Amino acid sequence: MTNRPPGRRSGVEAPVLRGPFDPGGQPTVKRPNHVHLSLFAWNVSSGLSASKAVLSDVDKHRDVWKWPSSSKLLRAVEAAGMDSQLQYGMWSGYGGATGWNDAQLDWATAATASAAVTERIGIYSTIHVGYGFHPLLLAKLTSSIDHISGGRLGVNIVAGQNPADYAQFGLVGPPSQEERYDIADEVTTALKLLWTSEEPVDFEGKYFQMYGAQVIPTATSRPRPVLITAAGSDIGLDYAARQCDVVFITSQNNSVEGFRQRASKIHGMFDEYGRTARIAAMCYVVMDETDEAAAETVAWMKDEIDDGALRNWLKRSGHVLNSQSKILDDNQIGEDRAGLDEDPYLGIGQEQYESLGMGMGAYQLFGSYQTVADQLIELYEAGVEQVALCFFDPHKGVQQMKDHVIPLLRERGYNHDLG
Known about the structure:
Number of strands: 12
Strand content: 15-25%
Mean pLDDT: 91
């Protein structure tokens, strides 16, 4: 049964509904001997810092997302010689004493404004595909952003799994992992068609239908905007290998060797589809003149971890754990709450508790400027070609990158002047 409107103009029939699908080919994602430096999560309150230390100076640490501050920060990112900015896609935060991530600039407005105040850096935005947003709307907005930026757009696609977000949209969710990635696959194919087709498109998918759909202007990027995703499961990685260009990964215990093994696996999966991957990792940065000075800041921040915010994160992300580190379902959460309240580390252990509070589990770059530069090179040599950096003090962190870390990377041939 079709939903085709009677008597309406139809378009070119979609050749496929699922990937792999690269009309015009893949964007270039490789740049030899260059660590791609991206500023991450600048558009949400506190970024990745779930520590009450942000309350010591809310303007510097918590509220950098406010446009008078963040617009200056983005210009500083460009002046520093960094490659891109990547927005965190958020619909609901995690509260606590700090109101962690409760305030957010949305993915479309913030990307458009970012494009208007910069000239060179990549404008990487994040969209969720599980809340019923039609691909035509997403294609129209992203094509316009790409046009305004002069072809600098990248789109990070998230198959959302936060039940609080689904509830905000009046939906019961999340769906199964298989269905979430089926939706992502269908949306991605439709985006690629709409970004590149000079003719109206007909698309009859399981989740979305379009008849005579077209966006003008089409995407300015050639052949299309870069597509980004974060994936850990085999289902997610298969979607990434078929449809995306940049893959954010983690490794067991955040070890460099773990990144190396993961990167090798992903390159093999992309090779099976005749496609190329850029491997990326999320990093949390605290640096200073010396390792000892950085360690003092880290120790203070750990002492101030926002316990309430982490509790909410664990519950909403589906990772509420009991003392045996087993995931609990919704019914068990209430039964085990007393035990969680008595455990200072919420049942996940001190190491993981502190890792979440200091970067939401990101790879941690703590130390002197030389130490941080060495760690970035070590990651690159392990296959991590792009790093999304989040700082406790973003304005200071970007200036430190410009004055100290990027010169060290360039001295060793790992970061080329972008002009």
